[in-house]
Amino acid sequence: MHGIKKPKASNFMRIFYTFTILFFSYSILAKNNWPDYSKEIKYKTSIDSTYQAMMSFVSPSDKKRPLLIALHSWSGTYTQTGWQNDALQWCLENNWHFIHPHFRGPNWTKDACGSDKAVQDIIDAINYMKQNHKIDTQRIYLMGSSGGGHMALLMAGRHPEIWAGVSAWVPISDIYSWWQENDKHKKYKKYARHIEKVVGGRLDQNKFAREQAQLRSPNKFLSAAQKVNIDISAGIYDGHKGGSVAFTHSLKAFNTIVSEKDRIPKKLINTFYKKQSLPSELPQASKDPLYQKKELIFRKQTQHTRVNIFKGGHEIISHAALNWLKEQKKGKPAIWIPSSIYTLSQSINKHKSGL
User: Fold this and answer.
1) Beta strands 296-301 and 305-310: pairing type?
2) Which H or E element spans position 143?
3) Would the CA dihedral through 150, 236, 233, 294 be positive or negative?
4) Cβ atoms within 10 A of the Cβ of 306, count?
5) Residues 262-293 pLDDT 10s
6) Which chain regions cross the lipid bilayer (predicted)?
7) CATH number of the domain at 37-174+217-325, please?
8) Any idea where the domains of the chain sit in the sequence?
9) pLDDT digit string (tens) for 125-159?
10) pTM of the predicted structure, to 2 decimals
């Protein structure tokens, strides 16, 4: 007598189980769905005594641990997720502290977009963590992309005394220039309107608006960040078909920080952007495994500052950002090549910066 054969699961059931597992795994890192190990905190600000929110994760270690500050994009808030989930997962797996502050929310009000209030909110968020948890102050890291890249560079220039490392991706370095680039752009003109709401009028018609734009631009302050370890990255297609922020913003931010002898000639920057190909006068970058399929096209560095142009658009490669940040210490020269590469156990594998 033959044994009774166990019935095979139907194709439908196999697909159902597979989908369920994948959906559950992804939901941990899905947009606007922060995992259970993160926590929303509200802290009192010093500039106007309001309570501002941030998402956080606290290392369970009884020793001082690094603090990573992730910054939301131009139109984002403290609840925005995407690459931020990779940053949070990194902190969980590497026993770091993590915060994702609101800093007055989307950049279409005067209190946001690099205002004194927004800057101080980030400082107050860091101070809250220092007062309540064990923070290694030699390893406080900052990362952001797009509007978050703008704020990361602004914070580097306005408070260079804090940072061990700053990783800025596809950043806006000059608000007036970005307004000009988007003012009549069919797809991106809404960002010009956002800026006008922030600064109080059209920048070509209003002196006060231009002054406000300058005060909210990283390039006004970045000369103070020459000794901060800063890594600036952008995709070569950004500003063309690949996104709303020309990669010239990254190259010009680099030039603002470094000494004159290390600057990239303005003519070559313009040619590079216009043709979307590397001018013959500039060297081709060596391969970097952290960039994976996003091939490096151009790279230039000094002791503390580096700029990278890669084959991509308006996006962030969190794997590259986090592995670079982990090597940096405040007051020490930048370590450009990580001693080891850490890969997250899970990732959404989507690194668009968001706007």
Assistant:
1) antiparallel
2) strand 135-145
3) positive
4) 19
5) 999 999 999 999 999 999 999 999 999 999 89
6) 12-29
7) 3.40.50.1820
8) 37-174+217-325
9) 999 999 999 999 999 999 999 999 999 999 999 99
10) 0.90
